Amino acid sequence: MHIHRRTLLALALATGLTAPSLALAEDTIKLGILATFEGAFTVLGEDGMRGAMLAIEEANGMAGGKKIEIVKGSSDASPDSAVRAVRKLVEQDGVKVVVGPLSGDEGIAVKDYAKTQPDVTFINGTSAAQDTTLRDPAENFFRFSTDGAQWMAGLGTYAFNEKGYKKVATVAEDYSFPYTQVFGFMAEFCKAGGTVPSKSWVPIGNKDYSSVIAAIPDDVDAIYVALGGADGVNFLTQYQQAGGEAPLIGGSITVDQTVLSSKGKMRDVVIGTPSAGPIADTNDTPEWLAFVEAYKKQPDAFPSPSLFAHGYYINTKAAILALDEVGGDVSDGGKKFREALSKLSFDTPTGKVSLDKNRNAVADMYLTEVSEGADGNLYNKLVKVVSQVNQTLGIPEEEFLALGAVSRENPSCP
Hints:
Layout (H helix, E strand, L loop, with lengths): L4 H10 L4 H9 E9 L5 H17 L3 E2 L2 E10 L3 H14 L4 E3 L4 H11 L6 E3 L17 E2 L5 H4 L3 H7 L5 E7 L2 H17 L2 E8 L7 H6 L6 E5 L2 H13 L6 E3 L6 H4 L5 H5 L3 E4 L8 H10 L11 H19 L9 H9 L2 E3 L2 E5 L5 E12 L5 E12 L7 H5 L13
Helix pairs in contact: 3-14, 4-5, 7-8, 14-15
């Protein structure tokens, strides 16, 4: 059967596609990037975008021989906003590959949405709630940036054995990612013999921490703080103003560059704070130093990349590497692309990354302490590298799952 050229042209015009635009559609691939460009975590989302752009620029804007077309989705860190944004990316913009989201509850919500879109591939941004991948995972959701409990590897033991903290209170935001961080810290701290007699949970965007500070027991040796963005800055500033004297232990995003780059007297409170996470500012490997120099060329960059820039970079790079392997072809519902992602193992600025059976990353973690650099800026000084941490923290999976899902109450060692 032969179709006349004029008939083909009429069909193209009817669908809004001329020959050049048909060629353009074949030569481009849409990459959705979902991050928090609104609300208390805006500064985090902006740095995540810098990381994603760095990975894209390294690849000269190409993936699988096709030009990358970036389609941005904006959320405010709430699950509803994340689902609205990703639904628009997928159902209106026609995106077949999404990188994101940024925050914990968002990740769980997007994971659930992913199950309704089996032909779309979702690759995490920096969302680090444990159960995004550990329990009831989605086959088309991948996380190359590890979870918040993994980020805490080494910290609980260090706080107990090296810092001598035996009794610790916690202050954290009231959602799945801080639950995961507290779990990761307490898993080691309590096993070492420490106790946690007090936990305070606050909503994202909380402005007044006076009652929280007043409720912290006087006899604790330290306070573990898992607050991010504007929340972290507000608590640290108000704790300093209240004359708080107990030393701090930092959740990963509490002493991240998104907080450390803030100005004010809160700097005096955080110097010397131990923490842990997927990066260390003073990492001196050639790979990390090259990453930092490339990152600094991004608009409005921090003195050193935040873990959000790092996470979005890693996950975007994974997407590009797998698209390169399949020639940018996701026409089979993304099956070959997802197979390539599942088998992907690659070197990053922070070491080797690979995936487990739940499509969650195994990677190196970094134990750090906040220090002041020669330039007057605050940095996370590397103390120790904890190699190739898996999602069950080295505990047999059945035994780890028996510990139960993270929550306000779990774990507990009063």
